[in-house]
């Protein structure tokens, strides 16, 4: 809802599995519940926050959601 397609969303915490992801986005977070990781990977990509920092150190095209 808050992210554009193909955007990276950073969550500075744990992502839980409630809700539905309808756009192909990359979600980077400290941790994911098993359900959340499965749902995200069906539509987009879930990655560890550290991996996101390595891939995109400038933080371009990233939206932080708390």
Number of strands: 4
Total individual domains? 1
Helix share, percent: 25-40%
What would the average pLDDT be, to the nearest integer?
Answer: 94
Task: Return the CATH topology.
Answer: Ribosomal Protein L15, Chain: K, domain 2
- Rg over CA atoms, rounded to whole Å, is 11 Å
Largest sheet: 4 strands, parallel
User: Could you spell the SSE succession in H and E letters?
Assistant: EEHEHE
Low-confidence stretches: none
| Structural shape | globular
N→C terminal distance: 13 Å
Task: Describe the fold and architecture.
The chain is α/β, with parallel strands linked by helices. The protein has one domain: Ribosomal Protein L15, Chain: K, domain 2, CATH 3.100.10. Helices cover 26% and strands 33% of the residues. The protein has two helices and four strands; from the N terminus they run E-E-H-E-H-E. It has helices spanning 34-43, 49-55, and strands at residues 8-15, 26-32, 45-48, 62-64. Strand 2, helix 1 (34-43) and strand 3 (45-48) form a beta-alpha-beta unit. The two termini are 13 Å apart.
Quick overview:
By secondary structure, the protein is an alpha/beta fold.
